[in-house]
Design brief:
By secondary structure, the protein is α/β, with parallel strands linked by helices. The protein has 3 domains: 96 residues, no CATH class; 101 residues, no CATH class; 175 residues, no CATH class. The protein is 47% helix and 17% strand. The strands form 3 sheets. Strands 6, 7, 9, 10, 12, 13, 15, 17 and 18 form a 9-stranded parallel beta sheet that branches. The protein has a 7-stranded mixed beta sheet with strand order 3-4-5-8-11-14-16. A two-stranded antiparallel sheet has the order 1-2. A hairpin with a 2-residue loop joins strand 3 and strand 4. Helix 3 packs across helix 8, helix 5 runs antiparallel to helix 6 and helix 5 packs across helix 9. The longest helix is centred in the last third of the chain and has 32 residues. The radius of gyration is 37 Å and the shape is elongated. The chain starts with 7 loop residues before the first strand and ends in a 41-residue tail after the last helix.
Length: 425
């Protein structure tokens, strides 16, 4: 049959051959039983004859299934197909052992995990892993793609093999009908590749050899560093700009919905404003220097103000005013708690299972959604208050970091009229 790793088996032909062989054997058994009955009438023989006749009738009148060809991945798997049921094809190898090929209809896509196509797996569509490796030992009818991982092929692929940020390794038993595209390609037998080999000049992501856990470890480490930096910058803002924070906080309290939609509008207008500034010579320094500083200041002021509001709601139990830094720290830790918990789980776990990976990913998603809402509303309040320089109404100044401070009561005395001329004093 030529190269065994690339041969195919016409399943429909084999099913018909197997069916014909079974029908032929049944007819022979029926003829022998009829010959016995011609000599002596036996009740057990009559029942067995009737059973065989019904079985033969069912085989001759049944509609044979239409099954795609089976790709033979090794010479020991070539043989007759016995039956087809529930999407599975059962064949007999030369040693007489049955081999089941489990068919998966359509494409198979996994996220944050490795994808394994075992020797008895047959995927009709594509096999895709996002931030994970793909191991192909069986057969994939279409493309095999890994975004942020490597691809290892020991079986057959009917389409292309693509790993734009990783490596592709093809063993001697691999066969690929299409092209192979990756940062680097290692093939024991390049003649088994039907298309071309293209090594793309993209950078190799640092976690591809470690799989999804390595990516989560990197993301968690970066997240922990960003949380520490944000907390330190927030404490600095509380210390040097308490009145600006107070004005942004009052704006958030008075107009929360307006602040959120204001921040959303600000995000939408950022790109066109940036482009308009770049097309003018005078606006280039503003676009490259001033605008990023404004965005950073608005994000910090908004985050600190939102954290302070949350901290006040958490620590107002005794009715006494708490230090501003304590209020900010309590609120900020609550806001980043999903990301903090996810990062700590990923960093402290050596070999996380599928359930833990799912939990960490869900916590990351929840934390990012919370922070997006917080930053959008806070940024809108900071922009509407002109970075805390414009007051929406009466302002309650922040308490100093070391203790409480009582705001001076505003004077409510009305100005007195001047004395009438000639009046005695």
């Amino acid at each position: 049959m030529g190269d065994a790793s690339r041969d195919t088996l016409d399943v429909n032909v084999q099913i018909r051959l197997a069916t014909d062989e079974q029908a032929k054997a049944l007819r022979q058994q029926i003829a022998e039983l009829e010959a016995q009955l011609s000599q002596s009438r036996d009740e057990a023989t009559l029942k067995e004859l009737e059973r065989l006749r019904l079985k033969l009738e069912a085989i001759e009148t049944s509609k044979l299934p239409e099954v795609p060809d089976v790709v033979i991945t090794g010479p020991d798997q070539a043989g007759l197909v016995l039956k087809h049921r529930d999407g599975q094809v059962v064949i007999i190898d030369p040693d007489g052992k049955s081999v089941q090929i489990h068919k998966a209809r359509g494409e198979k896509v996994v996220l944050f995990s490795n994808l394994y196509v075992n020797h008895d797996d047959w995927i009709d569509g594509a096999a895709v892993a996002i931030l994970g490796n793909v191991h192909v030992i069986g057969h994939v009818e279409q493309d095999v793609v890994s975004i942020g991982g490597n691809v290892y092929v020991d079986g057959t692929v009917g389409g292309n093999v693509v790993a734009p940020f990783g490596d592709v390794v093809l063993s001697g038993d691999a066969a690929v009908d299409g092209d192979v595209v990756a940062v680097s390609v290692t093939a024991e037998d390049e003649t088994a590749i039907g298309g071309t080999i293209e090594e793309v000049p993209l950078f190799r992501l640092p976690w591809v050899n470690g799989g999804p856990h390595a990516f989560l470890l990197l993301a968690s480490t970066v997240t922990l560093v960003m949380i520490v930096i944000t907390l330190l910058l927030g404490l600095l803002v509380v210390a040097v700009a308490p009145r600006h924070v107070a004005r942004v906080q009052e704006r958030l309290k008075q107009k929360p919905a307006g602040s959120f939609f204001g921040g959303l509008l600000f995000q939408i207008l950022l790109l066109p404003v940036f482009v308009l500034l770049l097309v003018t010579v005078i606006g280039i320094p503003v676009a490259l220097l001033a605008l990023p500083l404004v965005i950073l200041a608005a994000q910090l002021l908004g985050f600190v103000a939102f954290s302070r509001i949350l901290g006040e709601s958490l620590l107002h139990g005794d009715g006494r005013q708490k230090p501003a830094m304590l209020l900010f720290t309590a609120g900020a830790l609550l806001l980043v708690s999903p990301l903090l918990l996810a990062s700590l789980l990923a960093v402290t776990t050596v070999d996380p299972g599928a359930s833990l990976l799912l939990t960490v990913n869900l916590l990351f998603f929840l934390g990012l959604c919370v922070l997006y809402l917080v930053y959008t509303a806070g940024m809108g309040a900071a922009v509407l208050s002109r970075l805390g320089t414009r007051s929406p109404g009466p302002i309650r100044p922040l308490a100093p970091a070391g203790g409480t401070q009582t705001a001076p009561a505003p004077s409510t005395a009305l100005p007195q009229a001047p004395p009438a001329p000639g009046a005695s004093t």
